[in-house]
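Running low. Any example?
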Amino acid sequence: MKRLYLIGGPMGVGKTTVCRALQKSLDRSVFLDGDWCWDARPFQVTAETKAMVMENISFLLNNFLRCSAYDHVIFGWVLHQQAILDELRSRLTAGDAVIRSVSLVCTPEALTARVENDIRQGRREPEALAKSLAYLPLYGGLDTEKLDVSSRTPEEAARFLAGRA
């Protein structure tokens, strides 16, 4: 049976790292980072670009779900609004795939430390911290499973997501 993991969370919480650890722990798995579907310079949020990214993501996820080479499809993206999750799910032709929607969350202090570290290393712009902290409370209102990664390693989070913790 196919499994689709929809993994959301604020910028800097560790989505990509956790998704990569999950991918390593699961046989026959594929990982799609939503940011890869919208990596533009300048980054523009318009009705047209939002429609385009949803089309890109749903196209790729549906192809992965149809492909017999994969049993586990892992998708990581910010996913901070229920409407985004609902639209994405409505576009999926998952068949009998089990879909697990998870929001990675952590304490504001842990998120601050992670994002500040990314800023120091040049992986994020300074304004990312305020935006990430502003997004954090949004996950409480989503119809997703919450996984607090404040004190979990990516491997521990992956084991939990894989059902091995």
